[in-house]
Amino acid sequence: MCCLALTAGFLGPRIALFIWWIFGNKVDAAFDTWIWPLLGLVFLPWTTLAYVLAWGPLNGVSGAGWLVVALGFAADIATYSARAAKSRYQTAY
Q1: pTM of the model
Q2: Residue 43 has what DSSP assignment?
Q3: Which of 8, 27, 58, 79 is the most buried (most CB within 10 A)?
Q4: Is the confidence at residue 75, as pLDDT, over 70?
Q5: Domain boundaries, position 35
Q6: Which of 52, 56, 86, 91 is nearest to 72 (CA)?
Q7: SS3 at position 34
């Protein structure tokens, strides 16, 4: 069960961001170039997804939107640390 949750946390935001990028236009509007969403897709998918959610066409990201981005960053840190903790504390049977 833990492996399923870890896989969903690791692949879920990447798949969601990729589909939103292909079939929507908000990812292209939120970033000036294609390199930043690509790097976000590879390294910080939760943060990139939160940035796209918080981005607005008039102000960009402002106010409570930065809290959403910070929560996305915390989710990225939790995803990476959970994978490391699982490998460290996994017992061999």
Answers
A1: 0.82
A2: T
A3: 27
A4: yes
A5: 2-89
A6: 52
A7: coil
Q: Note the maximum CA span of the chain.
A: 56
Number of domains in the chain: 1
Cα(17)–Cα(67) distance, integer angstroms: 19
* Beta pairing partners, 56: 60
Paired with 60 in beta bridges are 56
Give the confidence band of 2 by pLDDT, cuts at 50, 70, 90: low
CA distance 48 to 42: 10
Token pair of 67 as six digits:
């809290």
DSSP state letters, 52-88: HHH-BTTTBS-TTHHHHHHHHHHHHHHHHHHHHHHHH
Dist CA 53 CA 6 (whole Å): 23
